[in-house]
Amino acid sequence: MHFILFVLIGLIAGALAGRVVSGHGYGMLGDLIVGVVGAFLGGWLFAVVFGVVGGGFIVSLLSAFVGAVILLWVIRLIAPGRA
User: Fold this and answer.
1) Helix axes 2-22, 57-78, angle to 10 degrees
2) What is residue 23's DSSP assignment?
C-alpha cells in the first residue's frame, strides 16, 4: 500500500512540477519518473535542511514537489533544448 501511495504522490508532484517549470509535462511516464526521483530528492532535502522526517500526505506531496522542481531545473540546465 505504501508503494502505491508513493507512486501516486510521485505522479502528482511530477505532473505539477512539469507544468510549473516548463509549462508542460514530460508525458505520464516521464512525470512519474521525475516525481518519484523528486520525491527521493525532496525527502532527503527536507530531512537534511529542515529536520522533517515523515509526515502526512501534504508534507510528502510538498517535499516531492520541491524535489521534482529542483530536478527539472537541473535537467533544463543540462539539456536546455527540451523546453
Assistant:
1) 50
2) S
Please give the DSSP secondary-structure letter assigned to residue 48. Answer: I
> Which residue, chain included where needed, has cell 512519474?
32
pTM above 0.85, yes or no: no
Nearest to 73 by CA among 36, 11, 18: 18
52: left (phi over 0), alpha (psi -120 to 50) or beta: beta
Domain range for 63 is 2-82
Length of the chain in residues, anyone?
83
Separation CA 36–CA 6 (nearest Å): 8
Domain count, the chain: 1
Residue whose C-alpha cell reads 522533517 in the numeric block: 52
Query: In 3-state terms, what secondary structure has residue 25?
Result: coil
Q: Tell me, what's the pLDDT at 12?
A: 87
